[in-house]
Every structure is written in structure tokens, then in C-alpha cells.
């Protein structure tokens, strides 16, 4: 079986690793000149680690990643609640820059004999009953199946003529990837509720390195507590889109990851959802059960989009009553162990 994967991010690399592990060596191309050095996604769920365990990638990730010890909530600078993690298998959450996750996936692929073809842009495709013919890097090759894992601005999705219905949230969010040697609770995921429905989040990436995200133009300026920043590795602004493609599979072409769905970072599900898409698709391609891919993954994608929007709307509520009540609810949840465990399972494992 000849399979082409377009995009060497976490989704495409997971598909490549899982196919190679099952005895089907795919080709994987990427228009970039080499591996990414951007931290991008941060949180890795335990179910994702379970997916990556058979290939050995999870073991390497676990050695380098930060295992979060809790999730803390603040009203402005004042801490109002902290939920403990790691009390069972479903409550583990890891932090690692996306480029390092990609590094370990690429190493796993290489162990199976795979190679990533960089500087090879996808340029179009046609398909019929016999194969999909893909134009890439100035050449054309036939494939039995094509996986579009080339991100939210997917060229594969565009080549299929598929729309990407949804909406963009108003305003811009900001991000900063920083080093801070003495940040408080360095293994704790921390959220800050700010006036007017704004939020700020600090997530550990590795020892003394953190991701700061805010619904304001300057993430670091939005942080309501002091942070001793010794180096800013990256900063910028972005717009949040909430979208999902109507068809995950068209003929011999399937979409996975951000090519099929995108949503807010609330809940930290994006990369995890893409990795799950890829593993599901790889298994179906090898086992011959591809017919159920769209139904299964579209439903899961819709669930995650709804979950992310529910969380985002709750923490960004501008209602004075809701913003007054929320700290008390968080305190109650943290004070009652069964409530706390249920909340952690909801937020961490869905």
C-alpha cells in the first residue's frame, strides 16, 4: 500500500509512526526546510501518551516533559483554588514544547526506517478509482491513500474543494514563550481570571521555561502577578478560529488534525485530538476499516470543539453575577475530593 502524508507536525508524524510500526512505510512530505523550532502546543494528555507508548515515543517524552502537579485558579492575583493531579491514570497531564514532541516522534519514525522529505511542497492532486495522483515538489506520483495533516490552512483540504465552516473569535490573543528561574509553582498549570472577561494562563514547558497566553494584546503585561523573565524566546499575537470540516474523507484522501478542525486553546485539546485522529486513521488503513473514519473522528472533533467553547465561555464570561459566583464554585470543587476528582477528569481527560 502506497500512502502519502502531507505535513510533518505532530499529527502527520504520529500517522507515519503508527503506519510504520504496523509494517506500512509511508512517505511524509513537508514544505518547510527542516524541523520546526516553535513551541506551539504544550499539554499532552495521558491518553496521548498511551497512543505513543508502543513506538517508544512516550518514554522519551516522559523523560523530558514536565508532569504537572496541579491546576490552580486565580481571581486577579489572588489564588482561589488548586486541584491536584496524578491521583490516577486519567489525571496525568504533561507539558512539553511542540517542537520537542515532534523531535521524539521523528526519532521514532527514523527507528522504523522512515525519513521526512522536507522542502517538498504539496502542489495539488487528482484522484480516480485506481489512485490519487499528487503533485509535489515539481513531480507527480500515484498513491493508494493520502493523509492531509498540513494544518489549519491545509492545501490538501483546499485541493479537495472542501469548506471549513465556523467562525473567528473577536479580538486578538497573545502568547509569550519565556524563561523564568524562580516562577512560583513551576510544575503547576495556572489560570488567572481578569477584569472584563479576560484571562491569562501560565503553563510549564520545561525547567524554568513557561508559556504565557492571554486574551489581551500583551501576554506578559496581562499577567497580574510578578514574573522574573530572563529571556523571551518567542512572543506574538493570534486570532482564534473555531472550525470543523464537513467531510474528513473524500475518495482516497483523509484529513486529520488542524486540517480537519481548530478551536480555542481552552482545555488544551488541539494537538492531542490531532494525534488521536492520526492513530485512529493509521489503524483503519492497515486493518481495512476506513469507512468508519469520518463518522468516528467528526463526532469526536465536534465534542472537543463544544467542550473548548464551553470552557472558554465560562472563564471569559462578562456577566457580573457569573464572575462573582465562579470563585466560590472553584473553592467548593477544590474543597470536596469527589468534586475535585470529577473536575480534573473533565478538564484533563474529557
From TrEMBL:
Keywords: FAD, Flavoprotein. It holds the Pfam family FAD_binding_3. Its cofactor is FAD. Residues 2-183, 229-285 form the FAD-binding domain. InterPro entries: FAD-bd (IPR002938), FAD/NAD-bd_sf (IPR036188), RIFMO-like (IPR050641). It comes from the Bacteria. Signal peptide: none annotated. This is FAD-dependent oxidoreductase. It comes from Sulfitobacter porphyrae.
Amino acid at each position: 500500500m502506497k500512502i502519502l502524508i502531507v505535513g510533518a507536525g505532530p499529527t502527520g508524524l504520529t500517522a507515519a509512526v503508527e503506519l510504520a510500526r504496523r509494517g506500512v512505510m509511508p512517505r511524509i512530505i513537508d514544505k518547510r526546510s527542516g524541523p520546526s523550532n516553535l513551541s506551539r502546543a504544550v499539554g499532552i494528555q495521558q491518553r496521548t501518551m498511551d497512543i505513543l507508548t508502543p513506538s517508544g515515543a512516550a518514554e522519551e517524552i516522559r523523560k523530558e516533559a514536565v508532569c504537572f502537579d496541579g491546576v490552580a485558579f486565580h481571581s486577579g492575583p489572588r489564588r482561589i483554588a488548586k486541584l491536584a493531579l496524578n491521583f490516577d491514570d486519567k489525571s496525568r497531564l504533561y507539558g512539553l514544547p511542540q517542537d520537542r514532541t515532534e523531535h521524539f516522534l521523528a526519532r521514532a519514525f527514523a527507528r522504523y526506517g522512515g525519513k521526512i522529505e522536507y522542502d517538498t511542497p504539496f502542489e495539488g492532486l487528482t484522484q480516480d478509482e485506481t489512485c490519487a495522483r499528487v503533485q509535489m515538489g515539481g513531480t507527480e506520483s500515484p498513491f493508494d491513500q493520502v493523509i492531509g495533516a498540513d494544518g489549519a490552512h491545509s492545501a490538501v483540504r483546499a485541493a479537495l474543494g472542501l469548506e471549513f465552516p465556523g467562525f473567528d473569535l473577536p479580538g486578538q490573543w497573545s502568547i509569550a514563550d519565556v524563561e523564568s528561574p524562580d516562577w512560583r509553582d513551576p510544575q503547576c498549570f495556572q489560570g488567572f481570571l481578569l477584569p472584563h472577561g479576560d484571562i491569562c494562563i501560565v503553563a510549564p514547558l520545561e525547567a524554568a521555561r513557561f508559556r504565557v497566553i492571554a486574551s489581551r494584546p500583551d501576554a506578559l503585561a496581562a499577567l497580574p502577578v510578578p514574573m522574573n523573565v530572563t529571556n523571551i524566546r518567542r512572543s506574538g499575537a493570534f486570532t482564534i478560529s473555531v472550525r470543523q470540516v464537513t467531510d474528513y474523507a473524500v475518495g482516497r484522501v483523509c484529513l486529520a488534525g488542524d486540517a480537519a478542525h481548530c478551536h480555542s486553546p481552552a482545555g488544551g485539546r488541539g494537538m492531542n485530538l490531532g494525534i488521536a485522529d492520526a492513530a485512529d486513521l493509521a489503524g483503519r488503513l492497515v486493518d481495512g476499516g476506513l469507512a468508519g473514519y469520518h463518522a468516528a473522528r467528526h463526532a469526536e472533533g465536534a465534542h472537543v470543539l463544544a467542550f473548548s467553547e464551553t470552557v472558554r465561555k465560562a472563564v471569559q464570561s462578562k456577566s457580573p453575577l457569573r464572575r462573582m459566583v465562579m470563585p466560590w464554585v472553584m473553592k467548593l470543587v477544590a474543597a470536596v475530593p469527589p468534586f475535585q476528582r470529577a473536575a480534573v477528569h473533565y478538564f484533563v481527560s474529557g
